[in-house]
Amino acid sequence: MDLNPRKLRILRAIVDEYILSGAPVGSKVLSQNPSFKLSSATIRNEMADLEDLGYLEQPHTSAGRIPSDKAYRLYVNNMMQRSNLTEDEIKVMSAYCQSKVKGLDAVMRETASVLSRITHYTALVMMPESSTNRLRHLQLVPLAEGYALVVVVTDAGVARDSVIRVPVEMGADELDRISRIISQRYYNCRMIEVGDRMMKELGGELQDRGTFLTDLVETMETAPGANAHRIALSGANNMLDFPAYSDIDRARQLLAAVEKKDSMYQMLKNAGPFEISFRIGSELGEDIFSDCSLVTATYRIGNMPVGTMGVIGPTRMPYGKVVSVLDYMRKSLGSILTNLLEED
Amino acid sequence: MDLNPRKLRILRAIVDEYILSGAPVGSKVLSQNPSFKLSSATIRNEMADLEDLGYLEQPHTSAGRIPSDKAYRLYVNNMMQRSNLTEDEIKVMSAYCQSKVKGLDAVMRETASVLSRITHYTALVMMPESSTNRLRHLQLVPLAEGYALVVVVTDAGVARDSVIRVPVEMGADELDRISRIISQRYYNCRMIEVGDRMMKELGGELQDRGTFLTDLVETMETAPGANAHRIALSGANNMLDFPAYSDIDRARQLLAAVEKKDSMYQMLKNAGPFEISFRIGSELGEDIFSDCSLVTATYRIGNMPVGTMGVIGPTRMPYGKVVSVLDYMRKSLGSILTNLLEED
DNA sequence: TTTAGCACTCCGTTCGCCTGAGTGCTAATC
DNA sequence: GATTAGCACTCAGGCGAACGGAGTGCTAAA
Question: What CATH number did the domain enclosing A172 receive?
Fold first, then answer.
């Protein structure tokens, strides 16, 4: 980068100030900051340079400057420092950690809720999923004639159910027998392998059962992590707080986008396996989110990254604080899950 | 009621017109309607009367009239007629009916989604729950040492899971054994009775297991219908479409209210067991919904009402159409569930 | 290289004006 | 007695002019 230290300092001050105030930053306020011993005119010159270099933008001629996505990128990479959490925040988060364990679903929802309450943004938490998920139990429960409920339990600690057709002549006893066989034979096998093995090893025995085996395997595989593609979402309404979406029309589009959990899932997924990662404005690749940033954190069970949580807010969010919160939460969630689910 | 037939006709015309246009209705447009052979002056007099009686309101002196909640109530009780569904709507809804069966969760989500897409309002669908739900299967799956996942399957066709502590010395075998005993002994028992019976009948056998039995029973009971208090929600962003919420601040409050699924659940629940029921504006008892109406429909499994679905929109929604859609959907959902889950 | 000074730009707000829709009332008509 | 035509009055919403303020770029001096 061709930014001299003074330019860097000024850019950083602008980003900090803009995040704080939300209003375009003028040369005057910066020159009043005692840490700069420069006149506003000098700063104006530097700001003009920074604009030429693509770090700043001007909403209109007689306004101050606002940081560009490029500036935010530089900021989060090199300049940002984590901010300390307030006592209140820590209180909320540690209360959450100690709350009594209820099923995984509830933990995820609660995590999202805490995240959105503390940051005042929209929080997303992906269900844990991992290609190393292992089968704990499979149960086929007969429903109406010709139908059965498939319940799959993995070591990620949650049951996932769906309905499949079964041959009419298969009674409760046989379904139960099959359940027991599969549960025992494939206990602790990785989910990604179970399907293949079942096709090979049980194909003969069940060959006169029509598509039953195929259907069953497909059902099990479409839920590879037993939780595929499921996310908890909280605080969508916080989106309306920030002025970029005071335009009702945009607000609608945004909410509609957020409601599509599939695409939200993809956004989380795209963040990759980094502990903390940022996607800023245009980097998100969705027009409607061009004024938003997504900060994500990966949580682990034991040492294995199994899921991602994230916060979507305006590009001008206080990254330092958001990072601190996410880091705290990803560790908390990790240890909750690890204690609960680790291989025993 | 002290409304003569002419007043009724006028009131009805006003409601119809206002629902259609969204703008306060003046005497002139009504007098132009050829079905009234009255001058605008006459109609004005009648409108003044209707206002005195509380059926109409005037946003300001020189505006037309809009219907009050009282008028809408009269309208839905006595005047409204169901409107026919368009071909497109029927196409969407019947496609939904024939879609391949996936777990109950998916069916509920899809129902809500179809409802909100067709009505362009916010749709709520309560999971089926019934005090007559019967146990199909119980499975305790060991997790980390001292923890187990409780999976309960009822005839409502869905598994519900949560985690409980178990005595450390109970191994996988014993958990499995207990699962089998409970599943067999209480197969097809009503969920509301299972807890009591377990306490009585298994108390002795498990008395040296600490709070295990109590915990287990509690877990099973907090999910009486296996789906207690769960709802699917779709189209919340549609709320932003109507002008009453073009004020961003109100929009936020509204969305926050909608996000609280508990209170949404209560609103559905409060609707009672009627096939179709209306709650208009102030009748909803929540300030933030004072410009909204909730139309609900109860769906059945077999002959038993097990859940409610509803649509929230502005008080000036086209009730006739919404009712037709809800009626269609409640029957569709009912038959989907009945086919799938009926006692065999 | 930095700074002071100045003319200029442009946004957002405020204010007054005007228009159009709709009313209530009165007096005439059926 | 019910209905209607006519008229004066009211008020919300839209439009444009005027204005103040914040901030800039440029020039010339330090």
Answer: 3.30.390.60
Q: Which residues touch strand D (CB under 7 A)?
A: A 23-29, 40-41, 44, 47-48, 51, 58, 61-65; B 37-39, 41-42, 45, 59-63
CB-closest option in A155, A248, A340 to B163: A340
Cα distance between residue B257 and residue B259, in whole Å: 5
Q: What is the C-alpha separation between B169 and A118, in angstroms, rounded?
A: 40
Q: What is the 3-state secondary structure (H, E, C) of B73-132?
A: HHHHHHHCCCCCCCHHHHHHHHHHHHCCCCCHHHHHHHHHHHHHHHHCCEEEEECCCCCC
Provide the 8-state DSSP code for A136.
E
The contacts of residue B47 (CB under 8 Å, 6+ apart) are: B10, B14, B27, B56, B65
Burial class (CB in 10 A: 0-12, 13-18, 19+), A98: exposed
Phi-psi region of A150 (alpha: psi -120 to 50; beta: other; left: phi over 0): beta
Q: Are residues A125 and A234 in the same domain?
A: yes
Alpha helices in B141-244 (DSSP H): 172-185, 191-202, 212-221
Residues A276-305: tens digit of each pLDDT: 999 999 999 998 899 999 999 999 988 888
Contact A327, A300 (CB under 8 A): no
Distance of CA B108 to the CA centre of its chain: 11
Across the beta sheet with A159-165, the strand order is A135-142, A147-154, A159-165
Q: At a CB cut-off of 8 Å and minimum separation 6, what does A334 contact?
A: A299, A300, A301
The average pLDDT across B65-89 equals: 95
Give B268 or A36, the one with higher predicted confidence: B268
The answer to whether residues A153 and A217 belong to one domain is yes
What count of other Cβ atoms lies within 10 Å of the Cβ of residue A156?
A: 26
Does the beta carbon of B237 lie under 8 angstroms from any beta carbon of chain A? yes
Report the CATH number that the domain containing residue A63 is assigned in CATH. 1.10.10.10
Nucleotide nearest to A42 (CA to C1'): C2
Contact B161 A163 (CB under 8 A): no
Residues B310 and B175 in one domain: no
Q: Are residues B242 and B334 in the same domain?
A: yes
Name chain B contacts of A137, Cβ cutoff 8 Å. 139, 141, 151
pLDDT in tens, A297-322: 999 988 888 899 999 999 999 999 99
Q: Are B136 and A140 in contact (CB under 8 A)?
A: no
Instruction: Give the rounded distance of the alpha carbon of B58 from its chain centre.
Output: 32
Q: How far is CA A301 from CA A246, A310, B333, in A?
A: 40, 17, 39
The answer to whether residues B253 and B335 belong to one domain is yes
- Same domain? For B269 and B337 the reply is yes
Cα A270 to Cα A283: distance, rounded to the nearest angstrom:
11
